[in-house]
Amino acid sequence: MSAVKTVILAFGALSEPFWRDAVKEYEKRLSGLWPLSVIELPEARLPSSPSAAEISAALSAEAKAALARIPPRAYVVALCVEGRMLTSPELSAVMEKAAATHPEIWFLIGSSYGMDASLKARADLSLSFSRMTFPHALARVIAAEQIYRAAQISRGAPYHK
Amino acid sequence: MSAVKTVILAFGALSEPFWRDAVKEYEKRLSGLWPLSVIELPEARLPSSPSAAEISAALSAEAKAALARIPPRAYVVALCVEGRMLTSPELSAVMEKAAATHPEIWFLIGSSYGMDASLKARADLSLSFSRMTFPHALARVIAAEQIYRAAQISRGAPYHK
Protein backbone atom coordinates (compact mmCIF):
# COMPACT_ATOMS: atom_id res chain seq x y z
CA MET A 1 0.00 0.00 0.00
CA SER A 2 1.19 3.54 -0.79
CA ALA A 3 1.84 5.82 2.19
CA VAL A 4 -0.61 8.68 2.64
CA LYS A 5 -1.94 10.83 5.46
CA THR A 6 -5.70 10.97 5.85
CA VAL A 7 -7.67 13.86 7.30
CA ILE A 8 -11.33 14.32 8.18
CA LEU A 9 -12.31 17.99 8.18
CA ALA A 10 -15.64 18.70 9.86
CA PHE A 11 -17.52 21.55 11.51
CA GLY A 12 -18.52 21.66 15.14
CA ALA A 13 -17.60 19.38 18.03
CA LEU A 14 -18.94 15.90 18.73
CA SER A 15 -21.33 16.27 21.65
CA GLU A 16 -21.54 12.65 22.76
CA PRO A 17 -18.55 10.79 24.27
CA PHE A 18 -19.48 7.59 22.38
CA TRP A 19 -19.04 9.33 19.01
CA ARG A 20 -15.68 10.72 20.07
CA ASP A 21 -14.55 7.30 21.34
CA ALA A 22 -15.62 5.61 18.10
CA VAL A 23 -13.59 8.05 15.96
CA LYS A 24 -10.61 7.77 18.35
CA GLU A 25 -10.69 3.99 18.01
CA TYR A 26 -10.30 4.24 14.23
CA GLU A 27 -7.58 6.92 14.57
CA LYS A 28 -5.72 4.43 16.77
CA ARG A 29 -6.20 1.54 14.34
CA LEU A 30 -5.09 3.69 11.39
CA SER A 31 -1.76 4.77 12.90
CA GLY A 32 0.95 2.98 10.95
CA LEU A 33 -1.44 2.43 8.04
CA TRP A 34 -2.93 5.65 6.65
CA PRO A 35 -2.61 7.85 9.78
CA LEU A 36 -5.83 9.77 10.36
CA SER A 37 -6.22 13.18 11.94
CA VAL A 38 -9.47 15.04 12.50
CA ILE A 39 -9.69 18.81 12.04
CA GLU A 40 -12.71 20.42 13.66
CA LEU A 41 -13.52 23.93 12.49
CA PRO A 42 -16.10 26.03 14.36
CA GLU A 43 -19.61 25.88 12.91
CA ALA A 44 -20.81 29.31 11.78
CA ARG A 45 -23.36 30.69 14.26
CA LEU A 46 -26.91 30.99 12.99
CA PRO A 47 -30.20 32.08 14.56
CA SER A 48 -32.71 29.26 15.26
CA SER A 49 -34.75 29.99 12.12
CA PRO A 50 -32.16 31.36 9.73
CA SER A 51 -33.06 32.96 6.39
CA ALA A 52 -31.73 31.54 3.13
CA ALA A 53 -29.30 34.47 2.92
CA GLU A 54 -28.03 33.82 6.46
CA ILE A 55 -27.50 30.12 5.67
CA SER A 56 -25.72 30.97 2.45
CA ALA A 57 -23.41 33.44 4.25
CA ALA A 58 -22.65 30.86 6.97
CA LEU A 59 -21.81 28.12 4.44
CA SER A 60 -19.63 30.53 2.51
CA ALA A 61 -17.72 31.51 5.68
CA GLU A 62 -17.25 27.83 6.59
CA ALA A 63 -16.01 27.03 3.07
CA LYS A 64 -13.50 29.90 3.24
CA ALA A 65 -12.11 28.62 6.55
CA ALA A 66 -11.90 25.06 5.18
CA LEU A 67 -10.24 26.09 1.91
CA ALA A 68 -7.58 27.97 3.90
CA ARG A 69 -6.65 24.69 5.62
CA ILE A 70 -6.60 22.24 2.70
CA PRO A 71 -3.08 21.86 1.23
CA PRO A 72 -2.85 22.47 -2.53
CA ARG A 73 -1.57 18.92 -3.16
CA ALA A 74 -4.25 17.15 -1.12
CA TYR A 75 -6.72 14.80 -2.81
CA VAL A 76 -10.14 15.93 -1.60
CA VAL A 77 -13.27 13.82 -1.07
CA ALA A 78 -16.45 15.80 -0.32
CA LEU A 79 -19.13 13.79 1.45
CA CYS A 80 -22.56 14.76 0.18
CA VAL A 81 -25.81 12.89 -0.28
CA GLU A 82 -25.89 13.60 -4.03
CA GLY A 83 -22.34 12.26 -4.55
CA ARG A 84 -21.22 9.01 -6.16
CA MET A 85 -21.92 5.77 -4.35
CA LEU A 86 -18.97 3.42 -4.16
CA THR A 87 -18.49 0.03 -2.57
CA SER A 88 -15.77 -0.24 0.09
CA PRO A 89 -13.31 -1.95 -2.32
CA GLU A 90 -14.00 0.79 -4.90
CA LEU A 91 -13.25 3.50 -2.33
CA SER A 92 -10.09 1.65 -1.35
CA ALA A 93 -8.96 1.57 -5.01
CA VAL A 94 -9.68 5.31 -5.42
CA MET A 95 -7.65 6.08 -2.28
CA GLU A 96 -4.79 3.78 -3.29
CA LYS A 97 -4.61 5.52 -6.68
CA ALA A 98 -4.77 8.99 -5.05
CA ALA A 99 -2.07 7.96 -2.55
CA ALA A 100 0.35 7.30 -5.42
CA THR A 101 0.34 10.96 -6.44
CA HIS A 102 -0.89 12.91 -3.37
CA PRO A 103 0.67 13.21 0.10
CA GLU A 104 -2.71 13.57 1.82
CA ILE A 105 -6.34 12.57 1.31
CA TRP A 106 -8.93 14.84 2.90
CA PHE A 107 -12.56 13.95 3.61
CA LEU A 108 -14.86 16.96 4.01
CA ILE A 109 -18.07 16.76 6.04
CA GLY A 110 -20.42 19.75 5.73
CA SER A 111 -22.27 21.37 8.61
CA SER A 112 -26.02 21.12 9.44
CA TYR A 113 -27.05 23.09 6.38
CA GLY A 114 -24.71 21.43 3.93
CA MET A 115 -21.66 22.55 2.02
CA ASP A 116 -20.95 25.64 -0.07
CA ALA A 117 -20.46 25.18 -3.83
CA SER A 118 -16.96 26.68 -3.54
CA LEU A 119 -15.93 23.83 -1.23
CA LYS A 120 -17.56 21.15 -3.40
CA ALA A 121 -15.66 22.63 -6.36
CA ARG A 122 -12.34 21.88 -4.60
CA ALA A 123 -13.23 18.17 -4.33
CA ASP A 124 -11.64 15.55 -6.59
CA LEU A 125 -14.51 13.21 -5.69
CA SER A 126 -18.02 13.76 -4.34
CA LEU A 127 -18.91 10.67 -2.34
CA SER A 128 -22.27 9.58 -0.93
CA PHE A 129 -22.48 6.95 1.80
CA SER A 130 -26.23 6.55 1.57
CA ARG A 131 -29.49 8.02 0.29
CA MET A 132 -30.38 8.36 3.96
CA THR A 133 -29.62 11.42 6.03
CA PHE A 134 -27.20 10.83 8.92
CA PRO A 135 -26.31 13.18 11.75
CA HIS A 136 -22.88 14.78 11.38
CA ALA A 137 -21.45 12.81 14.22
CA LEU A 138 -22.47 9.51 12.67
CA ALA A 139 -21.15 10.61 9.26
CA ARG A 140 -17.80 11.27 10.94
CA VAL A 141 -17.73 7.79 12.48
CA ILE A 142 -18.70 6.17 9.16
CA ALA A 143 -15.94 8.13 7.37
CA ALA A 144 -13.33 7.03 9.92
CA GLU A 145 -14.47 3.39 9.68
CA GLN A 146 -14.45 3.42 5.86
CA ILE A 147 -10.95 4.95 5.77
CA TYR A 148 -9.79 2.15 8.07
CA ARG A 149 -11.59 -0.46 5.95
CA ALA A 150 -10.05 1.02 2.77
CA ALA A 151 -6.58 0.81 4.35
CA GLN A 152 -7.16 -2.80 5.36
CA ILE A 153 -8.38 -3.71 1.86
CA SER A 154 -5.41 -1.87 0.34
CA ARG A 155 -2.88 -3.81 2.39
CA GLY A 156 -4.68 -7.06 1.66
CA ALA A 157 -5.65 -7.72 5.27
CA PRO A 158 -8.82 -9.60 6.09
CA TYR A 159 -11.38 -7.39 7.79
CA HIS A 160 -14.63 -8.80 8.98
CA LYS A 161 -18.03 -7.24 8.64
CA MET B 1 -48.05 9.02 14.31
CA SER B 2 -49.34 5.45 14.72
CA ALA B 3 -48.13 3.53 17.77
CA VAL B 4 -45.76 0.67 17.07
CA LYS B 5 -43.02 -1.21 18.87
CA THR B 6 -39.69 -1.45 17.09
CA VAL B 7 -37.14 -4.21 17.48
CA ILE B 8 -33.60 -4.70 16.20
CA LEU B 9 -32.67 -8.37 16.04
CA ALA B 10 -28.95 -9.01 15.63
CA PHE B 11 -26.38 -11.73 16.22
CA GLY B 12 -23.50 -11.48 18.65
CA ALA B 13 -22.71 -8.87 21.29
CA LEU B 14 -21.33 -5.37 20.74
CA SER B 15 -17.71 -5.52 21.83
CA GLU B 16 -17.03 -1.80 22.23
CA PRO B 17 -18.71 0.29 24.94
CA PHE B 18 -19.11 3.23 22.54
CA TRP B 19 -21.33 1.18 20.19
CA ARG B 20 -23.45 0.01 23.13
CA ASP B 21 -23.80 3.58 24.42
CA ALA B 22 -24.79 4.88 20.98
CA VAL B 23 -27.57 2.30 20.62
CA LYS B 24 -28.70 2.94 24.23
CA GLU B 25 -28.96 6.66 23.51
CA TYR B 26 -31.40 6.00 20.65
CA GLU B 27 -33.35 3.48 22.75
CA LYS B 28 -33.75 6.26 25.33
CA ARG B 29 -34.81 8.84 22.75
CA LEU B 30 -37.31 6.42 21.19
CA SER B 31 -39.16 5.61 24.41
CA GLY B 32 -42.57 7.28 24.15
CA LEU B 33 -42.24 7.43 20.35
CA TRP B 34 -41.67 4.05 18.74
CA PRO B 35 -40.12 2.19 21.70
CA LEU B 36 -37.07 0.24 20.58
CA SER B 37 -35.73 -2.97 22.02
CA VAL B 38 -32.68 -4.88 20.88
CA ILE B 39 -32.64 -8.68 20.77
CA GLU B 40 -29.18 -10.21 20.58
CA LEU B 41 -29.04 -13.86 19.54
CA PRO B 42 -25.79 -15.81 19.85
CA GLU B 43 -23.70 -15.94 16.68
CA ALA B 44 -23.22 -19.52 15.44
CA ARG B 45 -19.69 -20.72 16.19
CA LEU B 46 -17.45 -21.26 13.19
CA PRO B 47 -13.80 -22.29 12.78
CA SER B 48 -11.44 -19.51 11.63
CA SER B 49 -11.49 -20.63 7.98
CA PRO B 50 -14.94 -22.17 7.60
CA SER B 51 -16.00 -24.14 4.54
CA ALA B 52 -18.99 -23.06 2.46
CA ALA B 53 -21.00 -25.90 3.98
CA GLU B 54 -20.09 -24.82 7.53
CA ILE B 55 -21.10 -21.22 6.77
CA SER B 56 -24.36 -22.36 5.23
CA ALA B 57 -25.17 -24.53 8.28
CA ALA B 58 -24.36 -21.65 10.64
CA LEU B 59 -26.56 -19.19 8.74
CA SER B 60 -29.37 -21.71 8.65
CA ALA B 61 -29.15 -22.27 12.43
CA GLU B 62 -29.15 -18.50 13.05
CA ALA B 63 -32.17 -18.06 10.77
CA LYS B 64 -34.06 -20.79 12.63
CA ALA B 65 -33.39 -19.11 15.98
CA ALA B 66 -34.45 -15.73 14.59
CA LEU B 67 -37.64 -17.04 12.95
CA ALA B 68 -38.65 -18.59 16.28
CA ARG B 69 -38.56 -15.11 17.86
CA ILE B 70 -40.32 -13.01 15.22
CA PRO B 71 -44.06 -12.67 15.95
CA PRO B 72 -46.35 -13.67 13.05
CA ARG B 73 -47.90 -10.18 12.88
CA ALA B 74 -44.60 -8.29 12.85
CA TYR B 75 -43.58 -6.22 9.83
CA VAL B 76 -40.04 -7.31 9.02
CA VAL B 77 -37.23 -5.27 7.46
CA ALA B 78 -34.12 -7.26 6.51
CA LEU B 79 -30.95 -5.17 6.23
CA CYS B 80 -28.80 -6.37 3.37
CA VAL B 81 -26.46 -4.67 0.96
CA GLU B 82 -28.47 -5.81 -2.09
CA GLY B 83 -31.75 -4.41 -0.66
CA ARG B 84 -33.69 -1.30 -1.72
CA MET B 85 -32.19 2.09 -0.96
CA LEU B 86 -34.60 4.54 0.60
CA THR B 87 -34.23 8.10 1.81
CA SER B 88 -34.96 8.74 5.50
CA PRO B 89 -38.41 10.26 4.72
CA GLU B 90 -39.21 7.24 2.50
CA LEU B 91 -38.29 4.85 5.33
CA SER B 92 -40.42 6.89 7.72
CA ALA B 93 -43.40 6.61 5.33
CA VAL B 94 -42.91 2.84 4.99
CA MET B 95 -42.81 2.49 8.79
CA GLU B 96 -45.81 4.76 9.33
CA LYS B 97 -47.82 2.66 6.85
CA ALA B 98 -46.64 -0.62 8.47
CA ALA B 99 -47.50 0.77 11.92
CA ALA B 100 -51.12 1.20 10.87
CA THR B 101 -51.57 -2.55 10.41
CA HIS B 102 -48.77 -4.20 12.44
CA PRO B 103 -48.10 -4.07 16.21
CA GLU B 104 -44.31 -4.36 15.75
CA ILE B 105 -41.65 -3.53 13.17
CA TRP B 106 -38.54 -5.71 13.27
CA PHE B 107 -35.17 -4.88 11.72
CA LEU B 108 -32.94 -7.89 11.07
CA ILE B 109 -29.16 -7.58 10.91
CA GLY B 110 -27.27 -10.66 9.67
CA SER B 111 -24.08 -12.01 11.17
CA SER B 112 -20.52 -11.82 9.74
CA TYR B 113 -21.34 -14.16 6.86
CA GLY B 114 -24.68 -12.69 5.97
CA MET B 115 -28.24 -13.91 6.25
CA ASP B 116 -29.91 -17.18 5.26
CA ALA B 117 -32.44 -17.12 2.40
CA SER B 118 -35.12 -18.46 4.78
CA LEU B 119 -34.77 -15.34 6.93
CA LYS B 120 -34.74 -12.97 3.96
CA ALA B 121 -37.91 -14.70 2.74
CA ARG B 122 -39.72 -13.64 5.96
CA ALA B 123 -38.96 -9.96 5.27
CA ASP B 124 -41.61 -7.55 4.03
CA LEU B 125 -38.82 -5.21 2.91
CA SER B 126 -35.13 -5.73 2.10
CA LEU B 127 -33.38 -2.47 2.90
CA SER B 128 -29.86 -1.34 2.05
CA PHE B 129 -28.22 1.56 3.89
CA SER B 130 -25.28 1.80 1.55
CA ARG B 131 -23.26 0.11 -1.16
CA MET B 132 -20.45 0.13 1.39
CA THR B 133 -19.81 -2.66 3.85
CA PHE B 134 -20.19 -1.68 7.49
CA PRO B 135 -19.26 -3.69 10.59
CA HIS B 136 -22.27 -5.18 12.38
CA ALA B 137 -21.91 -2.88 15.30
CA LEU B 138 -22.04 0.20 13.09
CA ALA B 139 -25.02 -1.22 11.17
CA ARG B 140 -26.82 -1.59 14.49
CA VAL B 141 -26.12 2.05 15.41
CA ILE B 142 -27.24 3.26 11.97
CA ALA B 143 -30.46 1.22 12.26
CA ALA B 144 -31.22 2.68 15.71
CA GLU B 145 -30.54 6.22 14.48
CA GLN B 146 -32.69 5.79 11.36
CA ILE B 147 -35.58 4.37 13.41
CA TYR B 148 -35.34 7.45 15.66
CA ARG B 149 -35.14 9.73 12.62
CA ALA B 150 -38.15 7.98 11.04
CA ALA B 151 -40.14 8.47 14.27
CA GLN B 152 -39.22 12.14 14.38
CA ILE B 153 -40.20 12.63 10.73
CA SER B 154 -43.46 10.75 11.35
CA ARG B 155 -44.45 12.99 14.25
CA GLY B 156 -43.50 16.07 12.27
CA ALA B 157 -40.68 17.09 14.61
CA PRO B 158 -37.66 18.93 13.28
CA TYR B 159 -34.51 16.82 13.46
CA HIS B 160 -31.21 18.26 12.49
CA LYS B 161 -28.47 16.55 10.55
How would you characterize the overall build of this protein?
The structure is a homodimer of 161-residue chains. Chain A is of the alpha/beta class. Chain A has one domain (5-44, 55-154): Alpha/beta knot, CATH 3.40.1280. Chain A has helices at residues 17-30, 52-69, 88-101, 117-120, 136-154, and strands spanning 5-11, 36-41, 75-84, 104-109, 125-127. In chain A, strands 2-1-4-3-5 form a 5-stranded parallel beta sheet. In chain A, strand 1 (5-11), helix 1 and strand 2 (36-41) form a beta-alpha-beta unit. In chain A, helix 1 (17-30) packs parallel to helix 5. The mean pLDDT of chain A is 95.
Q: CATH topology of chain A, which one? A: Alpha/beta knot
CATH class of chain A: Alpha Beta
Largest sheet of chain A: 5 strands, parallel
β-strand amount of chain A: 15-25%
**What name goes with the CATH superfamily of chain A?**
SPOUT methyltransferase, trefoil knot domain
Stretches with pLDDT under 50, minimum 5 residues of chain A: none
**Whole-number radius of gyration of chain A?**
15 Å
Rough outline of chain A: globular
Secondary-structure element series of chain A? EHEHEHEHEH
Q: Which structural class matches the secondary elements of chain A?
A: alpha/beta
Q: What's this, in brief?
A:
Chain A is α/β, with parallel strands linked by helices.
Structural features:
alpha/beta, globular, Alpha/beta knot, 5-stranded parallel beta sheet, 43% helix, homodimer, 20% strand, 161 residues
